[in-house]
From TrEMBL, chain A:
Superkingdom: Bacteria
InterPro entries (alphabetical): MetI-like, MetI-like_sf
Domain ABC transmembrane type-1 positions: 177-369
Protein name: ABC transporter permease
Entry similarity comment: Belongs to the binding-protein-dependent transport system permease family.
Main location: membrane
Pfam families documented for this protein: BPD_transp_1 (PF00528)
Topological relation to the membrane, as annotated: Multi-pass membrane protein
Keywords: Cell inner membrane, Cell membrane, Membrane, Transmembrane, Transmembrane helix, Transport
TrEMBL record, chain B:
Gene Ontology cellular component terms for the protein in this record: plasma membrane
Top-level taxon: Bacteria
Protein name: ABC transporter ATP-binding protein
Signal peptide location: none
Protein family membership: Belongs to the ABC transporter superfamily.
Compartments, record wording: Cell inner membrane
Gene Ontology terms for molecular function: ATP binding; ATP hydrolysis activity
Gene Ontology biological-process entries: peptide transport; transmembrane transport
One Pfam short name: oligo_HPY
SMART domains: AAA (SM00382)
Entry keyword annotation includes ATP-binding: yes
Source organism: Mesorhizobium tamadayense
Membrane topology: Peripheral membrane protein
Keywords: ATP-binding, Nucleotide-binding, Transport
Length: 379, 542
């Protein structure tokens, strides 16, 4: 019995998890060293930024207070717990720090600022230079105990300086990177879902469906998005999801063209006709036989859509119509840089982060496009 | 013997593919004397086209490379020639015509523009001279009323006319060598006969040499002086045409020569149950004109045809391309809408909706012409075959489905172990077997076969014909067999209808039609198919 079972499993070999075609594509993608490394660097940065709270925060990661293990990053403990009376604990307050250190210990993140934390001990008027540009005396001049102050340590350095509200630029860049990439990813995902569905329906059914839809898209994409955003931001409070929804309303159009063309081309393929002759329903044909054709074009477009969405968000923030004031945003950093030309660290940090992020995405996109190109040969 | 015009010595062609080299052509040598025709014969994948393309260095370099050999044309090595010197030879001394005349002409330019371009480029003629020469060339290749055709676009011409234009372009510079890469494969048999006659005539009039590439031995016998038989990148036999046909030495040549569809169709049986009958089938496509797109006329693709297909019998539908035979088949299978009564299994199905048709689809299957196009490249063979089962027998467990797939693959003569592979790993014949298996797994009663053998090599055609005949006998299937190839029809069909312009020209038992055809049209089709001879003008299309 067991033998028979073993035989049947042997005669039904497992399929490799990737089809030969996709294996070849993966190989081609790897062959493009620049794109391949860009992907890893980007993934590393993105995963790191997802854990920004553990890297740059104004709360300790773990603290032990009177024998109790606390997680201030995850749980908001009232100050009462440490003998104070505020509803929210300010762990940067020397009094609280002394209290906790006297009754236990605490582990700080490498950077002791969140994106909204104001550094009250900057050596000169905001925007302050990166801490490593001051000597120890100047750096600690504003702390109560001067150079001997326990808080004048490397964790409280402003590695990239502060902005004009004395907030740490490194923390803001880190959080800003995360929100930009997340915004881009969600927007890209949403717009490709809608775009592919719309393109598929148009291409597959053709005729009047196609004609009417196409005219609608032409009118729709003629609406000036920026003005609309200006008007809407006057009515609705600007926020992450409102902005996302507004952008989504217009960005789905980008993919319709390619997907529609692929479906139009492929719907008369003989294997599609063969599937019709087998009695396969329309929806199944679209998913199983036509969508894989369109996926190549879609996947090729996605990284560029992603970088496009990110730069749109950045420019909206720069113009002041983006995320609400106070949020960590790269566009806002650029705006500050433009207002404070005497503080070049603002502009340089913003420029490097944005250009690094966009270049990485474009390199990845380029490698993806080449990997899916059947005519491309690599040696 | 005088110095040969073209002399290929020890030529090899290798393709780099993901790091490893595959040899497409392996140390071949042949000569073409002045004024002679050499045929390279072989099945697809034998390397015959690659050899021909390397003569003009038209391969995708650097993916392709020549590890060895030289190609001497008038004593100078073409492979060592620079790109500039080569351009002087290409299209000038050596020209080429390709298989697919639709795609080798630019669809956006008129015939005149395309021929004049060649003349101006290579001979530096002025506008008026070039136009005169174009007319002369079109006359030469037998295009009637060339003045009217000058402004035509490629899509306005028939396949045969397009191939004639291609030949005119190839002749424009009075080449010494014409390379013809399967110039008639995409054409009807009747048109094929016309084109071959034209090529043979031009060759003798102009004293050109010709390198003719084909898989069809019938054509070789007709046109070539010498033959090289190629298989797997090697030339296995070479010699004068007569000798090769009379006394083939190599096993592969014998195999090719023996590869004709053979055997007899099932005996006609008028008492067998009629599975599919069509009465007065009409498929008219409206021609719309004007601002309001009013229908002014119709293209009558199928115009009032009666058919009856009986269980265990085959109805052959023959006719040149554009005669409406495929449209008729598609109408009967309800893939396109038509007027008239279609009675399947005693039920009128022409009024049924798409969803009402779905349960019937199982008994009414189609096998398409092109096994490369009809199998989805992204699905494994098992997935392709079980797709229909999933719809029509949704209750089957995956294992039961798999068993059915294995059974049907055995039945069509494929190794069931290969079912997890993808279509591109199979040859054309094997793919067509997969397409047949996909239809057969549903146990149909009626199968429409739309030129299932046209895209296949000769020897594979014979095998597919045998397979179809066996399946028919075993399952008592009713076939509607559409083909322009009368050899295949003769081997399979017991009843034949001959179609032209959407109407029946002749119908009856196949023996009667083959032994005593009544109309000129049928006779012309048969002469073209069996003897590769042309008919007097006007009987068939160009």
């Amino acid at each position: 019995m067991a033998q028979a079972a073993a035989e049947t499993t042997a005669s039904r070999p497992l399929r490799p998890w990737l089809s030969p075609l996709n294996q070849r594509r993966l190989q081609n993608f790897r062959a493009n060293r620049r794109g391949y490394w860009s992907l890893w660097i980007f993934l590393l940065l993105f995963v790191l930024s997802l854990f920004s709270e553990l890297i740059a925060n104004d709360k300790p990661i773990i603290a032990s207070y009177k024998g109790e293990i606390l997680f201030p990053v995850l749980v908001a403990y009232p100050e009462e717990k440490f003998g104070g009376f505020y509803a929210v604990t300010d762990y940067r307050d020397p009094v609280i720090q002394d209290e906790i250190n006297a009754n236990g210990w605490m582990i700080w993140p490498p950077v002791r600022y969140s994106y909204q934390t104001v550094n009250n001990a900057i050596p000169e008027a905001a925007p302050a230079k990166p801490s490593w540009l001051y000597d120890k005396k100047a750096r600690c001049s504003q702390y109560p105990q001067g150079a001997a102050d326990p808080n004048c340590n490397i964790g409280n350095w402003n590695w990239l300086g502060t902005d004009d509200q004395a907030r740490d630029v490194l923390a803001r860049v880190l959080y800003g990177f995360r929100i930009s990439v997340l915004f881009g990813l969600i927007l890209t995902l949403g717009s490709s879902l809608i775009g592919v569905a719309a393109g598929a329906v148009q291409g597959y059914f053709g005729g009047w469906t196609d004609l009417l839809f196409q005219r609608f898209i032409e009118i729709w994409s003629a609406i000036p998005v920026l003005y609309l955003l200006l008007i809407i931001s006057a009515i609705l409070p600007p926020g992450f999801f409102i902005l996302l929804g507004l952008m989504l309303l217009f960005s789905w159009v980008a993919l319709v063209g390619v997907v529609r063309a692929e479906f139009l081309r492929a719907r008369n393929f003989e294997y599609v006709n063969a599937a019709r002759a087998l009695g396969v329903p329309n929806l199944t044909i679209m998913f199983r036989h036509l969508l894989p054709n369109a996926m190549v074009a879609t996947l090729t477009f996605l990284p560029f859509l992603l970088s496009g969405s990110i730069s749109t968000l950045t420019s909206l923030d720069y113009l002041g119509f983006g995320l609400p004031p106070g949020s960590a945003s790269l566009g806002e950093l650029l705006k500050q840089a433009q207002r404070n030309l005497n503080a070049p660290w603002l502009g340089i940090s913003g420029f490097i982060v944005i250009s690094l992020m966009l270049s990485l995405l474009v390199f990845i996109g380029e490698a993806t496009r080449d990997a899916f190109d059947p005519r491309k040969t690599f040696r | 013997m005088s110095e040969p015009l073209l002399s290929v010595r020890d030529l090899s062609v290798a393709f780099a593919q993901g790091g490893n080299q595959s040899m497409a052509v392996d140390h071949i040598s042949f000569d073409i004397a002045k004024g002679a025709t050499l045929a390279l014969v072989g099945e697809s994948g034998s390397g015959k086209s690659v050899s021909a393309l390397s003569v003009l260095k038209l391969l995708p370099y650097p993916a392709a490379s020549h590890p060895s050999g030289k190609i001497l044309f008038h004593g100078s090595n073409l492979l060592a020639m620079g790109e500039k010197a080569l351009r002087g030879v290409r299209g000038n001394k050596i020209t080429m015509i390709f298989q697919e005349p639709m795609t080798s002409l630019n669809p956006l330019h008129t015939i005149e523009q395309q021929i004049v371009e060649v003349l101006k480029l290579h001979q530096g003629l002025g506008d008026r001279q070039a136009r005169a020469r174009t007319l002369e060339l079109l006359n030469e290749v037998g295009i009637r009323e060339p003045e009217k055709r000058l402004d035509a676009y490629p899509h306005q011409l028939s396949g045969g006319q397009r191939q004639r234009v291609m030949i005119a372009m190839a002749l424009a510079n009075e080449p010494e060598l014409l390379i013809a890469d399967e110039p008639t494969t995409a054409l009807d048999v009747t048109v094929q006969a016309q084109i071959l006659e034209l090529l043979a005539g031009l060759k003798s009039r102009k004293g050109m040499s010709m390198l003719f590439i084909t898989h069809d031995l019938g054509i070789v016998r007709k046109i070539a002086d010498r033959v090289c038989v190629m298989t797997k990148g090697r030339i296995v036999e070479t010699g004068p045409t007569q000798e090769i046909f009379a006394n083939p030495q190599h096993a592969y040549t014998k195999h090719l020569l023996a590869a004709e569809p053979k055997g007899k169709p099932p005996a006609a049986n008028a008492a067998a149950k009629a599975v599919m009958t069509g009465k007065e089938i009409k498929v008219w496509f409206p021609i719309k004109r004007g601002f309001f797109r009013r229908t002014v006329d119709h293209v009558k693709a199928v115009d009032g045809i009666d058919v009856t297909v009986r269980a265990g019998q085959t109805l052959g539908v023959v006719g040149e391309s554009g005669s409406g035979k495929t449209t008729l088949g598609l109408a009967l299978a309800r893939m396109i809408s038509s007027r008239g009564a279609i009675n399947f299994n005693g039920r009128d199905i022409n009024q049924l909706s798409f969803s009402a048709m779905r349960p019937l689809r199982r008994e009414l299957q189609i096998v398409f012409q092109d096994p490369f196009g009809s199998l989805s490249p992204r699905m494994s063979v098992a997935e392709i075959i079980e797709e229909g089962l999933k719809i029509h027998e949704p209750k089957l467990s995956p294992d039961e489905r798999d068993d059915k797939v294995v059974d049907v693959l055995k039945e069509v003569g494929l190794d069931p172990e290969t079912r997890h592979r993808y279509p591109h790993e199979f040859s054309g014949g094997q793919r067509q077997r997969v397409a047949i298996a996909r239809a057969m797994v549903l146990n149909p009663r009626f199968v429409m076969l739309d030129e299932p053998t046209s895209a296949l090599d000769m020897s594979v055609q014979a095998q597919v014909v045998d397979l179809l005949r066996n399946l028919q006998a075993r399952h008592n299937l009713a076939y509607l067999f559409i083909s322009h190839d009368l050899k295949v029809i003769r081997a399979l069909a017991n009843d034949v209808i001959v179609m032209r312009n959407g109407q029946i020209v002749e119908a009856g038992p196949s023996e009667q039609i083959f032994s005593s055809p009544q109309t000129d049209y049928t006779r012309a089709l048969m002469a073209a198919a069996f003897k590769i001879e042309t008919a007097p003008s006007g009987v068939v299309s160009e």
